[in-house]
Amino acid sequence: MSNAPTEAPTAIERVFYPPTAEPWGRRALLSPLTALSWPYAAAVHLRRALYDTGLLRAERVEGLRVISVGNVNVGGTGKTPAVLHLAEMLVREGRKVGILTRGYGRGSREPLTFTGSEPLPSVDDAGDEPLLLARRCPQARLFVGADRVSSAYRARDEFGLDTVLLDDGFQHRRLARDEDLVVVDEAVGLGNGHMLPRGPLREPRSSLRRATLLWVRASSVAPGAALPAGSLPPGSPLSAPPSMETTGPDLPEVSGIARVRTRYRPTAWLEPSGRVLATDALAGQPVLALAGLARPGGFLRTLHSLGAEVRDAALFPDHHRFTADELRDVESRAARQGARVVTTEKDAVRLPPGYSAWVVRLGVEVLEGESHLRRALGLADVPRDL
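Above: the chain's sequence. Below: its structure in token form.
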């Protein structure tokens, strides 16, 4: 395997999430990206103005509560665990829940609907995140397709649902929503503050005024903390601490918008056979980390927090489709080092049946703002925060 797949995500992170203020030389070097961000920003501002002035209108599906969960950063903020946690909360409260998603990276354009209690489509047809959500919350119905207004009507009219979560919905303004939750990672905030492709922002910082609730993912590692010495082989592109964890919190202060603060933590290991084991099952054991994530450094830190000895890492861009050759190479590298292959739940969905990989499962813990969260979900008997 070449070094390119391993280096590419880290190179992007170091541009988007620099550890310190950028010197003039670096800014000059990146000026072509700055110039490319101008037409993108102009298009975003124009579209926002069309909706804000009413020239474009969002369509409301009466009788259906729509809760959007999105972000302003591109990738890696922790949106999927947030959607899963909200779906599970709603199901526990007796709501009839759907999840509307585009199904990023799928090879089909046909609209799909399914639940985790039914035969599931392939990852090529549905995408990895919808399959993960269906498996983890089988009571929620997934609607996969680009036309999420149509999906909302199907949820209400064909399946009698009363609440839907609009996955990655902050920029999808065609469908009117009751609540706009925006996920922000405390470890990196809004990064360098630039819009794509110069920075991680899909919209300008001022767009956060549309949000009704900020979902803050608390940093589980102190800003600036590095991977432990020896956790990766010398010369590995990730043996230096990824800069995404060194920027420290730079969270937006937006007047009048409530916040819920959460922590993501590993809750279990899944063996290749599917058996659920305690989080210390691989403590002291050598592992090879396999992932296709926007920001893989957090996954490596999770493995370290579980006591695993990270001998090597095969890291690819977000939603990467692993080829047979790549997976054989990963197996060979792991075998040479006497290591188990470990991966994330989202990446496991894209592995072929029978591929021997351990999977770390994450859960969400609400630290502050439970009452704000229940209000946003429209749940009765809102408790007071302690």
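The CA atoms of residues 25 and 31 lie 10 Å apart.
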